[in-house]
Amino acid sequence: MISKFGSVHILAVVAIQLLIIPSVSSLNLTNAYLHHKCNNTEGKYSHGSAFEKYINLALRAIDSDNYLNGFAYIERGEDPNKVFVMYQCRGDSYGSKCKSCISAAISGIDYENDFYLSNPNDVNDKELFNKETSALLEELTNKATDKSNMIGNKFVLYAAGDKRIGTKNVYAMVQCTKDLVTTTSAACFEWIFKMFSKCCEGKQGGRVLGTSCNFRYELYPFLRN
Are residues 80 and 143 in the same domain? Predict the structure, then answer.
């Protein structure tokens, strides 16, 4: 996929990988995000600027597309802040397959400016703790991005809960900014969860804060009821 945001060129490559195993009927297809590259020779735009506004409008327009022909060219805004976005999926990846690829590419472009914090203390059974904490965060993500999770006509894009792991209760939350729709927020969560292994494996608490999404977990209640 090649996109052009005004004077900023962005190259994002997404591929469908085939996992070859003995049974052809069990062939597993996965959409794997590979790489993106930004050309900043024209400078950077400012947070809250008109250019950023039109980028977000263009990305939302992409997310509302049906991806049936695997290609779109979108313009938003007025000069000198006009934004152009183009995507094209591989010839065998239209419809839902194209949608998942583009969501992954957009998340890689927009949500990489994140940082993390973790508790310096380790848990006893790291393998069990990592597995169950990841499962809790995934469960909360599904709840946060569920289309029925709304207040009025707005998506909440937030969920919190707790889970007993061994002898400890783990408390966690996930949240995305409300300018994202459910499909894009799911991709955003997927992106920041990749940071879990770097920041939080085996730790008694941790959090990742991204531009648009974040998660946190602790061994104590840290949220208001």
Answer: no
145, 172: one domain: yes
The tokens describing 82, both together, are 């006009």
| 122 and 101 belong to one structural domain | no
Q: What is the pLDDT of residues 58-81, one digit of tens each?
A: 887 876 666 777 788 889 999 888
Strand order in the sheet with 8-19: 2-5, 8-19, 28-39
Q: What is the tally of structural domains in the chain?
A: 2
Domain interval for residue 159? 117-218
Helix axes 182-193, 126-144, angle to 10 degrees: 160
Q: Are residues 142 and 61 in the same domain?
A: no
User: Dihedral of the CA atoms 120, 173, 108, 53 (nearest 10)?
Assistant: -120
How many residues are given for the chain? 225
pLDDT at residue 225, rounded to an integer: 64
Residues 137/144, Cβ–Cβ less than 8 Å:
no
Q: Phi/psi at 54 (nearest 5 deg)?
A: -70, -30
- Give tens-digit pLDDT for 9-36: 433 433 333 233 333 333 334 455 556 6
Are the beta carbons of 28 and 20 closer than 8 angstroms? Answer: no
* Residues 205 and 132 grouped into a single domain: yes
CATH code, domain carrying 178:
3.30.430.20
Query: Which DSSP helix (H) or strand (E) runs through 207?
Result: strand 206-209
pLDDT digits (tens, 9 = 90+) for 128-182: 999 999 999 999 998 988 888 777 776 788 899 999 999 999 999 998 877 676 6
